[in-house]
Amino acid sequence: MHTRLTWICHGPTSANREGRFPLNEPLEQSAVADTAALAERLQRADHVKSSPAIAALQTAEILNLTAAADPKLADMDYGRWKGRPLADLQAKEPDALIQWMTDPDAAPHGGESLSKLQARIAGWMEEQQTFDGHIVAIANATVIRAAILHVMKAPSSSFWLADIEPLALLRMSFDGRRWALRFSH
């Protein structure tokens, strides 16, 4: 059994540009051409799964991929921080922000903790291990970071060390024993 998994970070949104927690925004208009150019780098997929986020579904559509929305690939629930700029939180709730970024079990925003997100994505990846073929998953950077930590068996403190830009593409494979990152040109 050999599972290939290609992660695609959805295209840019206003939340990316403005440095704020997302509100399920659509792609920015400027993202269309860059997203279409990514299609040339994709290999044929047996299954395409997407976060239910508008930007992820739009990314799939521009790539001419028919994606099934999977709630397990949803972005983290940011609770009352949804839509708020990071700079605003740094000014008004610095202790809560530091707690959230340093304690994987903390959820001062009332939403999902990093550890719960990581467990959700690890569970999703375990479900994919039984599939012999190529899966494309379109999600946001937070979900992809959680997948990287799962594959690398890295501690939660490593979560913020992976910078994932909009439209980034990351490949992984499962050989029946373990997941591995795949780097190619």
Describe this structure in words.
Helix content is 35%, strand content 16%. The chain is of the alpha/beta class and 185 residues long. A six-stranded mixed beta sheet has the order 3-2-4-1-5-6. The longest helix is centred in the middle third of the chain and has 15 residues, at 114-128. The mean pLDDT is 94.
Low-confidence stretches: none
**Share of helix, binned:** 25-40%
Q: What's the rounded overall pLDDT mean?
A: 94
Strand and helix order: EHHEHEHHHEHEE
Strands side by side in the biggest sheet? 3-2-4-1-5-6
Helix and strand content put the structural class at alpha/beta
Number of helices: 7
Rg measurement, Å: 16 Å
Strand content: 15-25%
How far is the N terminus from the C terminus? 24 Å
Q: Please tally the β strands and state the result.
A: 6
Shape estimate: globular
Largest sheet geometry: 6 strands, mixed
Task: Reconstruct the topology from this structure.
Elements: E1 3-9, H1 14-18, H2 31-38, E2 47-50, H3 54-62, E3 68-69, H4 86-92, H5 94-102, H6 114-128, E4 133-139, H7 141-152, E5 169-174, E6 179-182
